[in-house]
């Protein structure tokens, strides 16, 4: 199986003749055969490889885009609902989405085509320069100064490379999207995890009890309904914005990955997650410590293939 091409493996998985785990095991067996030459086990954890073959990433807030920024890889959250979450324990159905990581945008596109059940289609070459809206989101002040500088410089470089780049103001109600996302996802979380909250309270972490659960329990159904209505209005306004832009350029994370166990601020991704638009972290920057910092590229709802083409154009000009 290790001799198959990516397209052949794709067809085998889609037809049910092979699974991702079987492909991974075959590749690991091939690596084991050549271990005396390649010395792969020094860098490769076979157990982790199998675990990753069995699972995909998910994003309810920023759990795909933000780690992609921290790790310097392409990270993609598809248009909401395109990839079903069957088999994934529900956190907040209004925002839960399957996410993908890969080394290249081409691999992301191939994986996405397999998951949505369409014939894999190569990305087009020689696409025209995209129309890019540069966004300073409401959370702009949270960014590290170097992240602000990197994004502003990227906008200038992309314009110089031929893209039509202009600064765009998000719809006024978008100022409240972060809070709406918090209320919606926290309330849905406590409903979904009622059993754990009622019967295993002491086993839940203090951060979870005092954060997401406390917020969810305090959110009335009326506030929850109002937050969902605001999200719908923001989605409509954002859709109109994309008549003038192919993609938006925004931050993926505040800056480099934080030191320690803190996973960092996710609010650079949460409003876009609530908008249900496809988004991708593009690994194009380095912070002051040499660690990765990504840029987030966002397309209109349903514009995933346009996102891939524009993100590749941006990556090629900035990397």
Q: Report the biggest beta sheet as strand number plus sense, adding barrel if it closes.
A: 8 strands, mixed
What is the beta-strand fraction? 5-15%
What's the count of strands?
A: 8
The helix-and-strand class reads: alpha+beta
User: If you compute it from the alpha carbons, what radius of gyration comes out, rounded to the nearest whole angstrom?
Assistant: 20 Å
Q: How do the SSEs run, as a string of H and E? A: HHHHEHEEHEHEHHHHEHEEH
Shape: globular
The helicity comes to 40-55%
Distance between the termini: 34 Å
The helix tally amounts to: 13
What is the strand arrangement across the widest sheet? Answer: 1-3-2-7-8-6-4-5
Let me know the average pLDDT: 89
Low-confidence stretches: none
Multimeric organization: single chain
Walkthrough of the structure:
With 319 residues, this protein is of the alpha+beta class. It is 47% helix and 14% strand. An 8-stranded mixed beta sheet has the order 1-3-2-7-8-6-4-5, sandwiched between helices. Helix 2 (20-33) packs antiparallel against helix 4 (46-54) and helix 8 (177-192) crosses helix 11. It is globular and about 60 Å long.
Write the topology of this structure.
Elements: H1 6-15, H2 20-33, H3 35-38, H4 46-54, E1 57-59, H5 65-71, E2 74-77, E3 97-102, H6 105-116, E4 131-135, H7 145-160, E5 164-168, H8 177-192, H9 194-199, H10 206-218, H11 221-241, E6 247-251, H12 270-275, E7 279-286, E8 292-299, H13 304-318
Parallel strand pairs: 4-5, 4-6
Antiparallel strand pairs: 1-3, 2-3, 2-7, 6-8, 7-8
């Amino acid at each position: 199986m290790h001799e198959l091409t990516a397209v052949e493996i794709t067809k085998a998985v889609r037809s049910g003749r092979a699974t991702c785990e079987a492909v991974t095991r075959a590749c690991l067996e091939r690596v084991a055969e050549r271990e005396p030459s390649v010395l792969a086990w020094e860098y490769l954890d076979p157990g982790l490889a199998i675990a990753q073959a069995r699972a995909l990433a998910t994003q309810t807030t920023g759990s795909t885009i933000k780690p992609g920024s921290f790790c310097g890889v392409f990270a993609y959250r598809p248009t909401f609902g395109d990839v079903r979450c069957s088999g994934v324990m529900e956190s907040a159905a209004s925002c839960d989405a399957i996410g993908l990581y890969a080394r290249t945008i081409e691999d992301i596109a191939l994986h996405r085509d397999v998951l949505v059940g369409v014939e894999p289609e190569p990305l087009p070459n020689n696409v025209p320069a995209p129309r890019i809206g540069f966004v300073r989101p409401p959370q702009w002040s949270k960014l590290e100064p170097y992240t602000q500088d990197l994004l502003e410089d990227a906008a200038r470089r992309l314009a110089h490379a031929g893209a039509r780049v202009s600064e765009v103001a998000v719809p006024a109600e978008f100022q409240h999207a972060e809070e709406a996302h918090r209320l919606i996802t926290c309330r849905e979380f406590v409903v979904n995890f009622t059993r754990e909250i009622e019967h295993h309270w002491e086993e839940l972490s203090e951060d979870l009890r005092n954060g997401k659960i406390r917020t969810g329990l305090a959110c009335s159904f009326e506030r929850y309904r109002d937050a969902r209505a605001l999200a719908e209005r923001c989605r409509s306004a954002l859709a109109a914005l994309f008549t003038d832009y192919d993609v938006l350029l925004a931050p993926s994370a505040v800056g480099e990955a934080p030191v320690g166990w803190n996973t960092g601020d996710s609010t650079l991704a949460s409003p876009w997650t609530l908008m249900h638009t496809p988004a991708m972290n593009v690994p194009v920057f380095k912070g002051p410590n040499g660690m990765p910092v990504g840029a987030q590229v966002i397309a209109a709802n349903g514009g995933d293939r346009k996102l891939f083409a524009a993100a590749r154009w941006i990556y090629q000009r900035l990397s």
